[in-house]
Amino acid sequence: MLEQDFNKLKEISKELNEIRLRNNLIELQLKAEDNSFISWRYNQVMLLTRGKKKYDCKINHMRHNKDTNEFEDMDYNKYLNYK
Prior knowledge:
37% strand; 4-stranded antiparallel β-sheet
């Protein structure tokens, strides 16, 4: 990893922790990964939050299709209604 990218992630981690504290969350996780399958080729960013209760967990995704170069954005209402 490039040093400038590492330093940017360090800044982002501070902001994520501030957001976690402000929203009274036990856990806030933002994960980016390459999901290359035979029929589905996309980059994915996953947002996971967990509240005070053990099962109070919500997940949302943003996907970037490598073949079409299109993005499926994260949606706040979809996140709120996650079960």
